[in-house]
Design brief:
Structural class: mainly alpha
Number of domains: 1
CATH architecture: Up-down Bundle
CATH class: Mainly Alpha
Order of helices and strands: HHHHHHHHHHHHHHHHHHHHHH
Amino acid sequence: MSSPTRSSEEINAKARRAGIASFIGTTIEWYDFYIYGTAAALVFGDIFFSDTLPSGVGTLLAFITLWAGFLARPIGGIIFGHLGDRIGRKNTLVITLMMMGVATVGIGLLPTYAQVGIWAPIGLVTLRVIQGVAVGGEWGGAVLIASENAPKGKSILYSAFAQQGSPAGNLLATIAFFFLSAMPTPSFLLYGWRIPFIISAVLVILGMIIRLKLEESDEMKAVLARKKVVKLPLAEVLRKHWVLVLLGAGALPLAQVTYFKNTFALSWATKELGYDRGTFLAAIAIALVVQFIVQPFGAVLVSKIDMRKAMCLMVIPEFVLMPAMFFAIRTGNFTIAVVAMCLATIPHSMFYGAIAGVLARAFPANIRYTGLSTAYQLCSLVVGGGTPVLAQWMLNTSGNIVGVAIASGLYALVSLICTLLLLRRTGYNAGELSTAEQADHDELELENTRAATSNSPQSEAGEIATGRATV
């Protein structure tokens, strides 16, 4: 939805720049976020907690620190959603990237439990919370900077640029630890794990250069020009759109199953099933390559056919494939495990590629950042960080993987039900304006009509301002 005064070439060029910048920025942010999960599965339980703890407890505590980042994500969503809806998408994205970089490098420099005792996990949790606040504000802005600058009818497709940052960042994190896994264990525990965190500084500088050159989204320019900024976006969201927030949060558990597949499964496979650390990281990397390749096709599918049908085609296979993956991993056969992980990856990856654009369409432009971020981070709070904790607890208490497999299938069921209910409220055709977008469009048309029929100097000034606005 771009300015009608621009040529189609200019619209497409700006859309591409916004999409690429969104992809690069989210790749860096997610790299920083995912290296923590990988390190939590491999090493944090050993170096940031007492070595006198019973087997499995250190890993469980490491996963709880991972959850701390998810607990902080709603705070980031609220803070930066507020700023993004009041001062623009671009500035908030610069701040979130800087915060994430400082916290990530800080983790790489932390002393261990053997060096400073209880201050080690305290420092770890503190920096993880800062990471969580940063990524909580990042996701919604990155999605909107891409989708709001998209050509008409292609907002879901362009939102997939931001979504590609997740598998790309995860893949970079996994590759980094894959190469480091060849180090002798004492060296890896001493300093090897720190390297991916410290080199994040280089990536953040690159991301900052790109983001500072980014142009504000056209829809946000329209909100600012028309003085339609909401004083308290969160209050507006919770007062008028709370049902959409709950349905959006309920649609997203399937987007969190990656923490079953990567974080929890990595710990389980290497510590209990006898997989070599590098071998299982290679399996995860292969699955992430599959994710990166197939994920955009979810946005394509949703854009081409009735969105209800598209969602069913993507989600229903996951009811079986994700639970089956755990039993395939349990065989101890690398080939069987990789094939199962790749198959299980396809449905939730395609869903993830489409769902951001679907959710962005649900909210009006002047509170969209807050609404989108609140829904996403509410799910992250309840489901995302709790997933490896839940899985590890179920494994510790039952001694088998059956409960974990069942839980992973339930994630898909909840997501499908809530997504279909959400689509009933927003519309089923991606090529048409959603309910919220249509309301924005009608309001703008009404304002333009009033301005055109008035001869007052104030009305003429208003017409000039709204003429720059975007639908």
